[in-house]
Amino acid sequence: MLIESRPATDPEIAALVTAQQRELREADGGLDGQATATHDDIRYLAVVVNGRAVACGGLQALDEETGEVKRMYVRPALRGRGIARQLLAALEELAYQRGHTRICLETGTYLPAAIGLYTSCGYEPIPVYGPYVGNPYSVCFAKRLPVRA
User: Fold this and answer.
1) Structural domain total, the chain
2) Please, where are the H alpha helices in the chain?
3) Long-range contacts: 34-38, Cβ < 8 Å, 24+?
4) Which CATH number characterizes residue 53's domain?
5) Is residue 117 situated within a structural domain?
6) Which of 59, 74, 88, 145 has its CA 20 to 30 A from that of 96?
7) Which residues share a beta bridge with 6?
8) Is 16 inside a domain boundary?
């Protein structure tokens, strides 16, 4: 397994983001309303197994101190193997390298496995923020990152 940086325009990233968005729409009954497009300002990491990207996640700067995890997704056939946990750790390291002192994210109340992952990795619930305000299915989490010496 390899975790590598990929541009937002990478076809495998686009396919994973499309699959993630489709799965979210199915899980929430079509109420999520998130766009399926990738964004150029998100720095994507891909998990590559046997030459194929099987998972992705992105990091977007909200401000100088805060990074936001975006588009976390592992193909269903590969779930339960610790891939998401390793990808999340790599995104945290990327946030740290970019000088962020805090990392946050949004997920849905209908995704208990995702909530379990985030809380087991030290993320704590925070008030819903930004574009997620008003979405009754949104829950947000944050984690403090180590401070550079």
Assistant:
1) 1
2) 11-27, 83-97, 112-120
3) 38/8, 38/9, 38/13, 38/14, 38/71
4) 3.40.630.30
5) yes
6) 74
7) 44
8) yes
Residue 149 within any structural domain of the chain: no
Give me the residue label for tokens 């997620």.
132
Per residue in 23-78, pLDDT (tens digit) is 988 886 655 444 444 556 899 999 999 999 999 999 999 999 999 999 999 999 99
Q: Does any domain span residue 20? A: yes
**Residues 146, 93: Cα–Cα separation, whole Å:** 10
Q: Domain residues for 65? A: 2-144
3-state secondary structure of 78: helix
pTM, two decimals, is 0.91
**Distance separating alpha carbons of residues 132 and 108, to the nearest angstrom:** 10
Q: What percent of the chain has pLDDT over 70?
A: 91
Instruction: Tell me the C-alpha distance between 135 and 28, whole Å.
Output: 12
**Identity of the amino acid at 127:** P
